[in-house]
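Re: glutathione structure - here you go.
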Amino acid sequence: MLTFFTNGFSPFARKVAMALAYKGLPHETIDGLAHANRERLIAVNPRAEVPVLVDGDITVANSSDIVDYLEHKYPQRPIYPADLKARVEARALERLADVRIDAILLDCSIWTWADRKDDPPPGLKEAGQRDLDKCFARIEEALSRFASPLPFGHLTIAEFTYWPHLAALRPLGFTMDVQRFPRLAAWFQAMRRETVCMDDAKRTAEFMRSIPTNTSFEREKIFWRGDRIEWLLARGYHDWFMGEIKSGRVLWPD
Ligand SMILES: N[C@@H](CCC(=O)N[C@@H](CS)C(=O)NCC(=O)O)C(=O)O
């Protein structure tokens, strides 16, 4: 039996959850970010991050590595495009979401889920929208080289990576301009028709409903890692971030 350390809020964990569902792989689920499971998570991933997959005596951390492992070990219903060039494009799209879109959405959304009395620093959201639009333009250009609306002809790592982020845009107050990014909009609509995406949406909505009263995970200190810090510093929010460190509101990966 596979053991999956996940969390209902994490786009990286949701990427893996969708890959597991798509391949039809039964698994035991543990909320790795719940206080009660922290020691178990650290035992399998000293960085204390989800997702982590344990398959017998093999432990895999990091969403891209987990999906890569699943594809090798359980090749039924492939989630990478068969064509090598398309596969490189799909992995490049995955990386853009993992390192940039995730960073923007997480950095700008802290005030919607953490225990905060303050307001976001001025201009943060606007900087986020500007940089999201740059990412959308890159995706739109990449999509022009492939079929529409599902660029690789079936669900792949690209959809499992983008779905959580695209679905979060509107709830977080961001926009995706359909006139400027028609292929991206059509791609998102195509994802909405997929059971694996809608099942994820249901699981996530249920988790989000529990947030205001959920005391089982950390909401005062924010866990900060590379890409999310990089975007803040690159957009000039170093003073704000230093304030966070000085006031003891930062948790670091080990
Ligand atoms: N590169 C990692 C990133 C994973 C990651 O950032 N996980 C976050 C949740 S989205 C986490 O576990 N943070 C620890 C915490 O919030 O306590 C991956 O692709 O799996």
